[in-house]
């Protein structure tokens, strides 16, 4: 499972790594929603954390697209 991503950690990632983390987070969110629907979800707070991670990634990607939010770190 993916861990909670801090904004600073997300900003340091390359574009490719961001896309990879987004894909992982979306997959985890799908699995968590499926578990929730079937009554197997043990930790409801994980849903919220994953949604916030996805939003954070999208925000950083958009900032880079608009060239705002400071210099981009290339790794």
From TrEMBL:
Gene3D superfamilies tied to this protein: 1.10.287.310
Keywords of this entry: Ribonucleoprotein, Ribosomal protein
CDD domains: Ribosomal_L29_HIP
GO biological process, one term: translation
GO MF assignments: structural constituent of ribosome
UniProt GO cellular component terms: cytosolic large ribosomal subunit
Highest taxon, organism lineage: Bacteria
PROSITE patterns: RIBOSOMAL_L29
InterPro entries, alphabetized: Ribosomal_protein_uL29, Ribosomal_uL29, Ribosomal_uL29_CS, Ribosomal_uL29_sf
Similarity-based family: Belongs to the universal ribosomal protein uL29 family.
Official protein name in the record: Large ribosomal subunit protein uL29
